[in-house]
Amino acid sequence: MITLNATGVYDPSSDKANPNVRHKYIPDVSFHIKDGKGKWNIVRNRELPEDEQVYVICDHITIADGDKYNRVKLDNTISVFGVDIWRDKVVELHNYGHPTEDRELKAKELLGVYGEASGDALALMIDVIKHLKNAGDLTEDETKN
Predict the structure, then answer these.
(1) Which of 39, 96, 116, 144 sits in a 20 to 30 Å window from 136, CA-based?
(2) Model-level pTM?
(3) Is residue 7 in some structural domain?
């Protein structure tokens, strides 16, 4: 018998597979932040205090999604940079400030960021998309077996 082994899928409370497990992910990215003197500093997100780290709440890509997120899909449409993955699978974005207003940026609003903030926004989006696309990859030890 082959046992299903998928990251973030098993729900021990119900003893069943739940492929739509919503989870928190802390992106492994660096951000450019201006200090009080207007000088740019680079900070690593995962090295910030926990309450200051940027994180997302997102859903795993499932088998039922089929070819929906492939770069060139069967219906001949194109997914650029995984924007459709971000739009469909990222539910919440936390601790990421809006570039012009005193509030947090919403997940869908990140797609419209431009100017100085756009490089960091793109790095954040790409890291989350890589996380979602690679969530089911086997580790090196699992591959050896």
Answers:
(1) 96
(2) 0.78
(3) no
